[in-house]
Write a structure and sequence with these properties.
Elements lengths: L21 H11 L2 E6 L5 H16 L3 E5 L27 E5 L21 E5 L10 E4 L6 H12 L5 H14 L10 H12 L4 H10 L3 H11 L3 E3 L2 E6 L1 H7 L8 H6 L7 E7 L5 E7 L6 H6 L3 E2 L3 E6 L3 H21 L2
Parallel strand pairs: 1-2, 1-3, 3-4, 4-5, 7-8
Antiparallel strand pairs: 6-7, 8-9, 9-11, 10-11
């Protein structure tokens, strides 16, 4: 899905702010652009990958030259999506437009976004996280959407590109994962209507559910066993950590599996679940989930990350031990403040 780009002058646009009609502006800029770089966030989840691939197939239909990029590998549960193997970590070439998907902060694009080579190239920021900082030239941020994939579906309609089964599968994958199988509080009638349109276009909900929730590599199962054996309860916070040594022992190559933190947060004794994962670059990825009524997005933002009230995360440039103390301390204070107001 990576296309060769002939040299041309960069597209120049006047930076615009967020507006209710931002999706119309997005469609216009995509129509003007000739070579497009589409990027999603590090440690990608199903919405990031689904939105990335779904939009990629749309650009293919439009005859655009484009590259799909993500700094981290595609997690195993989403490798079934068509053309997932075409996503690159470090894109090369020149582009006249960058589209960021499902990312609340420019830093979370990681090495896939090279600020030196892309300086001056306009960025379309498409996201549904309430913690989005508005880093784009055009910011289309809609926290009322359950998934960025839902927003991409709206964009497809604006671009007047007919839905096909491949696009629909990628986008439904994003909606299903970000709603945890239509179980989150933001699963509105509009979300169900979007899912119905995608299924009508040929996406199979049972197939997506099987890949996303019901199948995991043996290495992940083994890693869960190791991580669950060292689970700790700190007040109403349940947490565990995954070291590089644990991953190597279990033969795991991928860094992303948010199923574990969702499983932890289901414990009756806890309000917040946390998984701290040591990455091979020495940083620590932090994934958090909470019960309804407990907002962890502010904690994630203070730590340099972002997300939703009940699902958030960040990446800390520190060791596991340092990250653990910092995250738990922030969560203790946040829970104390929130419960004091109840």
């Amino acid at each position: 899905m990576k296309a060769h780009r002939a040299e041309r002058a960069p597209l120049r646009v006047k930076p615009l702010g967020l507006s209710g009609s931002a999706n119309f502006t997005v469609a216009q800029l995509i129509g003007q652009a000739e070579s497009i770089l589409v990027i999603c966030h590090i440690m990608p989840d199903g919405d990031a990958i689904g939105s990335l691939l779904g939009l990629g197939w749309v650009l293919h239909k439009l005859g655009k030259e484009y590259t799909l990029a993500c700094a981290d590998p595609v997690p195993d549960p989403f490798a079934y999506l068509p053309a997932s193997q075409a996503i690159v970590a470090r894109p090369e070439g020149e582009y006249d437009l960058v589209i960021s998907l499902d990312c609340s902060d420019l830093k979370r694009l990681g090495v896939a976004y090279d600020q030196d080579s892309l300086r001056g190239v306009p960025i379309i920021n498409i996201d549904h996280h309430i913690t989005n900082v508005g880093f784009g030239s055009v910011n289309w941020v809609d926290p009322s959407s359950a998934a960025t994939a839902q927003m991409v579906l709206t964009l497809i309609e604006r671009l007047e590109v007919p839905l096909d089964p491949i696009m629909a599968t990628c986008l439904l994958n994003g909606i299903v994962t970000d709603t945890r199988g239509f179980r989150t509080s933001n699963t509105t009638p509009a979300v169900m209507e979007a899912a119905t349109r995608l299924m009508t276009a040929g996406a199979s909900l049972p197939e997506i559910t099987e890949h996303v929730f019901n199948r995991r590599p043996l290495a992940v199962v083994r890693l869960w066993g190791r991580a669950l054996s060292v689970v700790q309860l700190d007040g109403r916070i349940i947490w565990t950590e995954i070291s590089q040594a644990m991953k190597h022992e279990c033969g795991l190559s991928s860094d992303s599996d948010d199923g574990l933190v969702s499983f932890l947060s289901s414990a009756c004794e806890a309000d917040v679940g946390v998984v701290l994962t040591e990455k091979d670059d020495g940083t620590t990825d932090v994934s958090m989930r909470s019960i309804p009524g407990i907002d962890i997005s502010s904690v994630a933002m203070r730590l340099g990350g972002g997300g939703h009230p009940q699902a958030a995360g960040c990446n800390l440039n520190s060791s596991l031990a340092e990250a653990r103390e910092r995250v738990l301390d922030e969560l203790r204070h946040s829970l104390l403040e929130q419960t004091a107001h109840c």
